[in-house]
Specification:
Number of domains of chain A: 3
CATH architecture of the largest domain in chain B: 2-Layer Sandwich
CATH topology of the largest domain in chain A: Enolase-like, domain 1
Radius of gyration of chain B: 28 Å
Order of helices and strands of chain A: EHEHEEEHHHHHHEEHEEEEEEHHH
Strand content of chain A: 15-25%
Shape of chain B: globular
Shape of chain A: globular
Strand order of the largest sheet of chain A: 4-5-10-6-7
Oligomer: heterodimer
Distance between the termini of chain B: 62 Å
CATH superfamily of the largest domain in chain A: CO dehydrogenase flavoprotein, C-terminal domain
Structural class of chain B: alpha+beta
Radius of gyration of chain A: 20 Å
Number of strands of chain B: 29
Distance between the termini of chain A: 65 Å
Structural class of chain A: alpha+beta
Number of helices of chain A: 12
Number of domains of chain B: 3
Helix content of chain B: 25-40%
Helix content of chain A: 25-40%
Strand order of the largest sheet of chain B: 3-5-1-12-9-10-11-22
CATH topology of the largest domain in chain B: Aldehyde Oxidoreductase, domain 4
CATH architecture of the largest domain in chain A: 2-Layer Sandwich
């Protein structure tokens, strides 16, 4: 369990990183938190010729609000999701979901952007990125570009980034008072990758009907799973128990989860149904609370 | 002797060095010119090796040697084992691989990185063969055969018959039969296997540093395999071992393999097993399929037990196996007074990693069958699970009690312990809670499990694996006994040093020994230095040395007491001589020996010690100078099996009674432990905190087996749980809150009355949780006969059950 030989670089600027990645292309690998990459190296499942360690590129360590969006730089640790006031107030979903991500020791090293890039089908952050239509800012030899979440996740651990590109930032919408959110998951042990997880965000309109609904699930397909049919089913409707049941049943229609050591396909489908309802209910409940609070203020 | 220190929570003497990173583990040891080994392992469960080409690996910069099966067959012999089945178990694969992870080659290089690079360059041509992974399937006619020279896959078969089983079954009101499956799991100690081997060609001595934990029966086994005289194979055990739980007993094939590599490379070689290797190819308990039948009377009296057990011992029967099958033979009936027992035992070779001791060794498997069966019988007979157990317990006045299979239970009060557990759990209230939960449609269950906890293995029990006719032949050397030694020394200024050779792996021996010495010699535990080193060239040792089978608290402590009492006697003689009184008139206290009737007439221990060392002419006539004594303790009732296969397989027998409450989540299949009561009888407890830690650890280990851990192979014999992503060890977050209670029945067979406790709850926890889950799922009409009760398995039990639910 020792890695193969590799060259190691620890550049100080983004510019230097870009130069190195251009040089190494698919033979190079970015090292940020290393919580997934280092085990892969030690198991010799990955054997890059070069590691480009970005931990000294301090310009990538930021959380900012830009044009109503939350911008999180590539060096921001997952732990910051729990500690940052800005994140908690603008996108509470991130703050609350952080506790599902492994253990504090891992969150202290692992980065938000790193988890999204790694695109593990059972990881939480890619699901949030997908549900909230996050934007991925990537930099490569040809400059900068934005990839939308729907175009970003290709399949298991695979994104639409070019191997010579580096993701420098994720942009997520801030969530207003009439938006409620939830992340519900089942994992065997505390901190394990989810067997199934569902995140939901529900926004209410003036009539307390659903103006916007977003749902993404993990553990049921190769990429975070989102079904616009389910979302359309809820939108414009008053949230009711039977609507949620309908949505939960619909959510299961399009998935073909696999059976593995830890869960069966049927069990995953059942959990998807149960957790979808639970997440929607919690999100809608929170949205309603925000709505009531907002109205109280106006009155 | 006054018990000032025994029974106190003396802080562990080991902890300051361990908590400040100053422990000395094998990997902390280095030698000049040290090289490192990487092991190339089989990717196949079963395959012929057609050719091995190491030429590319040998050319890789930094590589000095490659060892393959050819070296193994030329330089070593197969490991010996108790049975005479003619399979050959070498330290690495010879011509054929029989499990995924089996060593095929060893690369010796300047560092581990280079060694792993080069291992990938060794070319092995395999011809895959069909594997057999299930122990029951291995018994079927036409199953793939692992060892052609054996002709089938049976490494050992014994039919052991005690009492009048058939008659009891004929007379029974109720006969129950059930098939059980108990999985393979391990212990995952924090520290993996570690070996450094250094061969001195001038003296022919092979020195090996390792974290081997005993039993040292395996030292001669290793020496014979390496073709080295026993006195030229020097085992040095690291000062600190990072846990073992039985698993490190099975390191010796790697000692032989790395020893061979060091001999061939003419250089010292270090091998530190990584976690992937550890999960795949170190050791575990057997996987077992069993068919148990019980005969009962209407009133719940257990009349007889019949069991057919099929243990999967992996690719080779590795000593001390087949001990999983036979170690609990004396306590097979557990705490019940049943007189009739039949055990039909098969040890099947399958294409999986060889097995070995794992905490609870053989007991959790039999208690799983037994205690599940008691619940099933209670249900059939309309009895409460607590009541059926109370009706069958060996009564408290029956000790010492001889079991039908020859066990001699030293002491106990089983009804008292179970009643305490029931009381602590507020059993009646739990049942009320259950009624309420069921009305709400919740799956709430209560489990009870009891078990006899054997300690200090008798070195002879394993020979019961051989038919009595073989054991009775004149050339056969019977085996018996269980021994430990300790040396106590008082220096010229009165300081006490105790020399132990017990290879502890975290059990706190230094602390416990200091407590005993403090009471025996009237000193403070902080002033006692305990040196626990093990070196076969320097330490007094026996084949039974080591820390396994929860033996230290019984046999090790007894050796310390004997040595201390010898020193004390000598000091009294010196004091009596000086004070001109008889030793009988003297007493020890506050660092002095004084005349009982006239305490003003006294002499300090320091003065006595000074006399023994410095003023030899003032010693009583004929007395040997110095103050050092060796204590040896062995159990006289640890005899070899008799002609009827009866054997006292252990020497002290503790007890545990446990009650748990669980709730099962219908949607996920997850089991949540709401309550866990654990009552123990370990006789006299020397350090309650240490025992408590062992109970916590044992219970969590058992919970791991009940709910989380399994070493899984697919039908092709591929190993599926090679990392902690898939082999799920419960963490602190999964640990239930334990409430511990004690009853104390001191052992009449040990000077302090102490018994072992290190395995205890690991034997009962798997079935305790299984019983609770079975109770929770009872409204669904499903049976729980297989572990682990993972969410996947429990979900299937809930959702595949076609029964009509009640109470919803």
């Amino acid at each position: 369990m020792k890695p193969c030989n590799f060259d190691y670089f620890d550049p100080k600027t983004l510019e230097e990183v870009v130069v190195l990645m251009r040089q190494y292309g698919s033979d190079g690998k970015i090292l940020a938190g290393g919580q997934s990459l280092v085990p892969l190296l030690n198991f010799r499942l990955a054997a890059p010729a070069a590691l480009v360690d970005i931990n000294k590129v301090k310009e990538l360590d930021y959380v900012r609000e830009v044009n109503g969006k939350l911008a999180i730089g590539a060096l921001v640790r997952q732990r910051v999701l729990e500690t940052s006031e800005a994140i908690r107030s603008k996108c509470g979903l991130l703050a609350e979901t952080a506790e599902f991500i492994a253990h504090p020791q891992i969150r202290n090293r692992g980065t938000v952007v790193g988890s999204i890039c790694h695109a593990d089908p059972a990881a939480e952050l890619p699901a949030i990125a997908r549900a909230l239509d996050a934007e991925m800012k990537v930099v490569g030899p040809d400059g900068e570009r934005i990839i939308k979440a729907e175009d970003f996740f290709v399949t298991l651990m695979t994104t639409s980034m070019d191997p010579s590109e580096l993701m420098v930032e994720v942009r997520l919408p801030t969530l207003g008072p009439r938006t409620g959110w939830a992340f519900e998951e089942f994992a065997i042990r505390h901190g394990d990758f989810a067997i199934v997880g569902v995140t939901a965000a529900v926004t209410l309109d003036e009539q307390k009907n659903c103006a916007d609904a977003r749902l993404a699930a993990i553990g049921v397909s190769e990429v975070p799973y989102r079904d616009s049919k389910v979302e359309r089913l809820i939108m414009g409707q008053e949230i009711s128990e039977s609507l949620l049941d309908q949505a939960a049943h619909q959510m299961v229609e399009g998935v073909e989860p696999s059976t593995d050591l830890h869960a069966s396909a049927d069990q995953r489908k059942h959990l998807l149904r149960v957790l979808t309802k639970r997440a929607l209910k919690k999100a809608a409940g929170r949205a309603l609370k925000g709505f009531e609070k907002g109205r109280g203020k106006n009155a | 002797m006054s018990k000032t220190w025994i029974g106190k929570n003396v802080k562990r003497h080991e902890d300051p060095r361990l908590l400040t990173g100053r422990g000395t583990f094998v990997d902390d040891i280095t030698l000049p010119n040290l090289y490192h080994a990487a092991i190339l392992r089989s990717p196949h469960a079963h395959a012929n090796i057609l050719a091995i080409d190491a030429s590319e690996a040998l050319k890789y910069p930094g590589v000095v040697e490659v060892v393959t099966g050819e070296d193994v067959v030329q330089k070593t012999r197969p490991f010996s084992v108790v049975v005479k089945t003619p399979f050959k178990y070498y330290c690495a694969a010879v011509k054929k691989v029989r499990y995924v992870g089996e060593p095929v080659a060893v690369v010796v290089a300047t560092d581990r990185y280079v060694a792993e690079d080069a291992a990938a360059l060794v070319r092995v041509d395999y011809e895959p063969l069909p594997p057999v992974v299930d122990p029951e399937a291995a018994l079927e006619p036409g199953a793939p055969i692992l060892h052609e020279e054996v002709g089938n896959n049976i490494s050992c078969h014994r039919l052991l018959d005690y009492g009048e089983v058939d008659r009891a079954f004929a007379e029974a009101d109720l006969v129950l039969k059930e098939r059980f499956v108990f999985p393979r799991y391990s212990s995952v100690p924090l520290e993996t296997y570690a070996v450094i081997a250094d061969y001195d060609s001038s003296s022919g001595v092979l020195t090996v540093w390792s974290n081997f934990m005993g039993p040292f029966t395996l030292h001669p086994v290793t020496a014979m395999a390496l073709n080295i005289p026993e006195n030229k194979l020097r085992f040095i055990i690291a000062k600190d071992i990072g846990g073992s739980f039985g698993i490190k007993s099975s390191i010796y094939p790697y000692i032989a393999l790395i020893g061979l590599a060091a001999m061939k490379a003419s250089r010292p070689v270090k091998w530190i097993e990584d976690r992937q290797e550890h999960l795949m190819a170190s050791s575990s308990q057997t996987d077992r399929v069993s068919y148990r039948e019980v005969a009962m009377r209407k009133d719940g009296t257990l009349l007889a037990i019949k069991t057919k057990i099929i243990d999967g011992v992996g690719a080779y029967l590795r000593a001390p196996e087949p001990a999983t099958t036979f170690r609990p033979i004396g306590n097979y009936v557990g705490p019940y007074k049943v007189k009739n027992l039949r055990v039909d035992a098969y040890d099947m070779m399958t294409n999986k990693c060889p097995t070995g001791p794992n905490r609870g060794y053989g007991c959790h498997q039999i208690y799983f069958e037994q205690e599940r069966m008691m619940d099933m019988a209670a249900e059939k007979l309309g009895l409460d699970p607590a009541e059926i157990r109370l009706r069958n317990f060996i009564p408290a006045d029956a000790f010492p009690y001889v079991t039908p299979s020859g066990g001699i239970y030293d002491s106990g009060d089983y009804p008292k312990a179970l009643k305490l557990a029931l009381e602590m759990s507020q059993y009646e209230k739990l049942r009320e809670e259950q009624k309420k939960a069921r009305k709400e449609g919740r799956l709430f269950g209560i489990g009870i499990a009891v078990g006899v906890d054997p300690s200090v293995s008798n070195m002879g029990y394993i020979t019961v694996a051989m038919p009595a006719e073989v054991r009775s032949q004149p050339e056969y050397l019977p085996k018996s006994g269980a021994v430990e030694a300790a040396t106590v020394r008082m220096d010229p200024l009165g300081g006490v040093t105790v020399l132990m050779n017990s290879t502890p792996q975290g059990q706190g021996h230094e602390t416990v020994v200091a407590q005993i010495i403090a009471d025996e010699l009237g000193v403070s535990p902080d002033d006692v230095v305990v040196v626990d080193d093990f070196d076969t060239s320097e330490s007094p040792w026996s084949v039974s040395s080591g820390t396994y089978s929860s033996r230290f608290a019984s046999v090790g402590t007894s050796a310390v007491v004997i040595a201390a009492r010898k020193i004390k006697e000598k000091m009294f003689q010196i004091a009596a001589h000086t004070l001109k009184v008889s030793p009988q008139d003297l007493e020890l206290g506050q660092g002095k020996i004084f005349v009982r009737q006239d305490p003003k007439r006294n002499i300090s221990l320091k003065r006595v010690a000074g006399t023994a060392h410095w003023d030899l002419l003032r010693l009583p006539e004929g007395m040997e100078p110095g103050l050092e004594a060796r204590g040896v303790f062995h159990f006289p009732m640890a005899d070899a099996p008799d002609s009827k296969d009866r054997v006292n397989s252990s020497n002290t027998y503790g007890f545990m009674a446990e009650v748990a409450a669980v709730e099962v989540d219908r949607d996920s299949g997850q089991v949540k432990i709401l309550k866990y009561i654990s009552v123990h009888d370990a006789g006299t407890i020397i350090n309650p905190k240490i025992v408590e830690g062992q109970i916590y650890g044992g219970a969590l280990h058992g919970v791991a087996g009940a709910l989380f851990e399994e070493l899984v192979y697919d039908q092709e014999g591929q190993f599926l749980t090679g990392s902690f992503m898939d082999y799920l060890v419960p963490t602190a977050a999964e640990a239930p809150k334990l409430e511990i209670g004690h009853v104390c029945s001191p052992s009449p067979f040990t000077p302090l009355g102490s018994k072992g406790a290190g395995e205890s709850s690991s034997e009962t926890a798997p079935v305790l949780i299984a019983n609770a889950v079975a109770d929770a799922l009872a409204p669904l009409g499903v049976k729980v006969t297989e572990l682990p009760l993972t969410p996947k398995r429990v979900w299937a039990l809930i959702h595949d059950s076609s029964s009509t639910e009640v109470g919803r």
